[in-house]
Amino acid sequence: MNTEPLTLALWQTPYAATPAEALQGLDDAAAQARAQGAQLLVCPEMGLTGYAIGAERVQALAEPADGALAQAVAGTAQRHGIAVVYGYPEHHPQGKPFNAVQVIGPDGARLMNYRKTHLYGGLDHAQFSAGDTAPQVFEWRGWRLGLLICYDVEFPETVRLLALQGVDAVLVPTANMAVFDEVQNLLVPARACENRVFVAYANACGHEPGMHYGGLSTVAGPEGGVLSRAGRDGELLFATLKREALDVARRSSPWSARRPDLYGPLAV
Q: What pTM does this model have?
């Protein structure tokens, strides 16, 4: 098993006015992240199009997983030698688009795609279809990684399912509002601690119509400690994930006392 650390950069940013502006911002962020030693850059939920943009615009901007946005991100990833986790609206042939996130490696290859399974409130339901496939683990640089989107991480079974697949770190693009800081302050560290994994929660900041995003992007370690946290404004947040921290945390894991015979296989 590769024991090399993995350095993440979380791009906390306001939403750009257009995908073209977002892609330019992403290119700048990727260059800066790689220059400071990051191997992987995590962007906010729907980071290339905006989140609260209305069902009509979401539909107009939706594309397949190998569409123009994916190709542009692949170019950025290859240009700067960094993997990119980005959110976008994925075309759905039978309904509203999916709220999706995709990982593209530094060679431009698509590594994993995930569709948000838990839709939040009227805005999410008006704009998106819910994904119907549970998150899966993928391996990169010797690390087992999983994807969730925003509201998904607030359900303990989502991270537990990934943990049961042997995940080391869960990457979560999000667009969480400032009135819900308990997610960054309480839930993200709790999900990390109860599952003995890293959780990286990359939030937006700034405003869209009717929405004030709270920032406070957070990386929590496998014992629940906060490794790194952003402020309210735009910034690149860095954190280095170390295999040794997982090993230490897992030596004191309560998992051996779990009772799936009574509470089911995903029992917390």
A: 0.97
